[in-house]
Amino acid sequence: MTDVLHELLRGSLDHCVKCTICETACPVSNVTPLFPGPKYEGPQAERLRVAGDPSVDHSVDYCSGCGICTQVCPQGVKIAEINAQARNKLKQRDGVPLRDRIITRPTVVGRLGTPAAPIANASARNRLVRVATEKLMRIHRDAPVPSFAGRRFSSWAKKHSSPRTGRKVVYFHGCGTEYYEPEEGEKLVAILEHNGFEVEVPKQDCCGLPLQSSGLFDDARKVVLRLARALAPHVRDGSIIVGNATSCTVMLKREAREILSLEDDPDLKLVSERTYDICELLLELHDRGELKTDFRPVPEKIAYHAPCQQQGHGIGKPALDLFALIPELEVVEMDARCCGIAGTYGLKQEKYEIAMAVGADLFGQVAASGADTVACDSETCRWQISHATDRPSVHPIDLLHRAYGLS
Amino acid sequence: MTAERHVDAVVIGAGTAGLTAGALLAEGGARVVVVAKGVGSTHLAPGTVDVLGYDPDRVEAPGAALAGFVAAHPEHPYARLGPDAVEPALEWFRAKVQAGPQPGYAYVGDLARNHMLPTAAGALRPSALVPETMAPGDAAADTSPVCVAGMRVLRDFHPELCAANLTAAGIPARAVELEVDMGRADANALGLARRLDDPSFRAAFAGQLGSKLRGGERVALPAMLGLRDPHRVWTELQERLDTPVFEIPTLPPSVPGMRLSDVLRAALRAAGGRLVLGSEVVGGERDGARVSAVRVHASGHDVLYHARWFVLAAGGLNSGSIELGSDWVVRETALGLPVHGAPGPGEPRFLPDVFAEQPLSRVGIAVDAGLRAEGTENVLVAGASLPGAVPWKEGSGEGIALTSAHRAAAAVLAAERIEATA
Question: Do B259 and B102 touch, CB atoms closer than 8 A?
Fold first, then answer.
């Protein structure tokens, strides 16, 4: 693959006026000097990265890839994307640790762990095993790792038959639902069916985001294109794809095309345009008067955190408007940028402390909110929040599922 | 394909004008979404509320000067808004700061007189309504000696330069340098502000600063006295040092500007308004003179926001909301609205003196007396998008932003009430 930066990204460089707004918003550079900041790493250092030459420094690997810098830039500079490409070049030169080759492949980990779930889960909770894993693999001993469900969502989906209403929607469930939280997928299907949709679950695989965010671009391209080939045939009839893994859907919508320079792949383009975040879809239905609102009261107080990657959709926070439809549900909106985990970033031994420092603001707000439960759209963020705050965390659809009386 | 949303009002722009209009509309009961390409100019501006600083000489009493200013500049936004419209907008802003996320933090001042605030270069700059943390620097009220403290790690702030120019302006000043370990070679005011939010850091900081002070000196610091808890940082420093302490605005990022943005965002959120950043408006859908929707560039697919009302507060030439093409045609980039104030064909566009009023300075979206964009029924314009002003030269930016946002929101809410009762 070419290492020449995509025109779109490189071209956006010259729009940088050095205003520092990205630096004010970067969650990582605000807690550690190891990452000097998005402006410094991106539009400034990029000018010293001559095509074909190695990256100018290693600090770009401390970018968590949360994407906030690009969201806040008033000039439209693709800062996070430029930094992701610089990281890829760094990895091409310096090589990729074994750890990053393993934890970036949730499909492999999931397939191995699922049949051995009780042993795998016990090991993940065993201090000795975790210390050994830290020494051998440089996965931090305290980092939040999820428990294997011991079953796969796709197995349930194969047996489940969605009522044929003729109003089809394609469900992209992602690896989190497949191996760790199959019940989330079942809830999503139930909510869509309750609203008259026929849910189709094609055979599918990882979106490649973990590979991309660790700088393994060639592998990420293979994986995301395989997914695009699997999903595209199901939406050629005009159907849309919906997903509950918000970082995986934003990967399909935009990141794969921009960061991996796959702008022109026709299958990915089709999938990208037709993909919806589940809350985005439900709110659009509500705007049109097509969402059932037979919600029962949920007399609870929850804290809501919109993860960085959810904000990367550019759709605001649709979960908040959906929560407002549920009687007696009290929602405290968190005003913190990031939980720190950034997918696999916070699992890494050298980055765990940074990730916890990044999330400290959010964790403090959760504690101060008086809420017992935290709602959040991304599974890895939820695992991090629960790890740090000792509170259960749920996807927004859990609350909708309960309010509909489906659970 | 395109996703579709339906709201009552869409505000374009997340600077002072956009966030204020959004908050007011939400407070008035409208379902409102504020969309913006990115964060607004709040993070770059000093965080003061400038109403009228120069006309063209320095203005001492902005309230009293407004009537004459308006008479002399009939196309200025203040002429459309009326001098009496400013104070209610300031009053609303003061209340939002009080109810805002920084406990105890306040703005002081009114239209009766301008403060004269030292800049980082040691010049004096007029402003009407200022953060309490800057007020003790007001040279119109106090010309007693000042100790300007800088830090080697904050390379954009030069205490010697500031002190020398303050002395030349009649305020005896000297410079000191503090050692602050930030774990890196250089830091900005925001990094320092975050450290000062931490009580243990600020105790040590005050100790070092106190050891360098002489009796009877006020203390000037770059604007870094806390982001989350500036009132406590400022009061505590004054108590520990037993002398007035004040902030001097820095080069970006501007900590007081970020506090102001946090105040307005909190007001928007508290009223149920929504904010979507990273979302550029790339066009609109029209039904004759009515704009029915704006197209926002989001991930994967565009989002079409349908609304009855639109407030355009995306800034002017400086933000890129209005651009001068290589064909020398001036365009408004979001909706293609007609602009006003551009030099005619053959007339000069630029003058050699960079500090002169440039022929393009007063370009803005053409509006009627009620701030309605020319050729539309339901697009209102606020802030730096308005034509006829040179805010940086007049010292008028925030006054125009707040007052025009109030006018725009009031126009929408009044029309909605009429429609509701009809």
Answer: yes
